[in-house]
Specification:
The protein is an all-alpha fold. 56% of the residues lie in helices and 0% in strands. It has a domain at 35-125: Up-down Bundle (de novo design (two linked rop proteins)). The chain is globular.
Length: 138
């Protein structure tokens, strides 16, 4: 995120002008020691567990994206996984009966947009660059 995005008013019109969205009405703030891939994986795990399971995109799509993120975070990600996540996220929001799915994919899309290099580095290094030593698989 650039410095220009730090001083914008937290209102829908100001954020929309920068292609930022409130999604579920929250903002996620991380310091430079927080891994954006781990944060994204954690959010997708939450959304996959909290989904009511009624709509196929939530029931099948969010857990599948979680598994892809888990692979990236634990060093098993492949070069095409990031684009696959982006592509699949497009299909999760439409066709659902509530805003839950959009709440799941908007922070994920934003994280990849803002921190794609971190996702790519996980795949290239086959580990999380924010930690030292072994990665625990979840």
């Amino acid at each position: 995120m650039g410095e220009s995005e730090l001083d914008i008013p937290l209102e829908f019109d100001s954020m929309k002008s920068l292609d930022l969205y409130f999604g579920t009405g929250t903002a996620i703030v991380m310091d430079d020691k927080t891994c954006p891939v781990a944060m994204s994986r954690n959010l997708q795990m939450f959304y996959s567990r909290e989904s009511c399971g009624w709509c196929t995109p939530c029931r099948e799509g969010i857990p599948w994206i979680y598994e892809l993120l888990n692979s990236i975070e634990t060093g098993e990600g492949r070069p095409g996984d990031i684009d696959l996540i982006i592509d699949q996220a497009k299909y999760i929001g439409p066709g659902t009966y509530c805003a839950f799915a959009m709440g799941a994919v908007q922070p994920l899309e934003s994280a990849i947009d803002k921190f794609r290099e971190d996702f790519e580095e996980h795949i290239r290094l086959r580990r999380c660059p924010y930690t030292r030593g072994n990665i625990l698989k979840s």
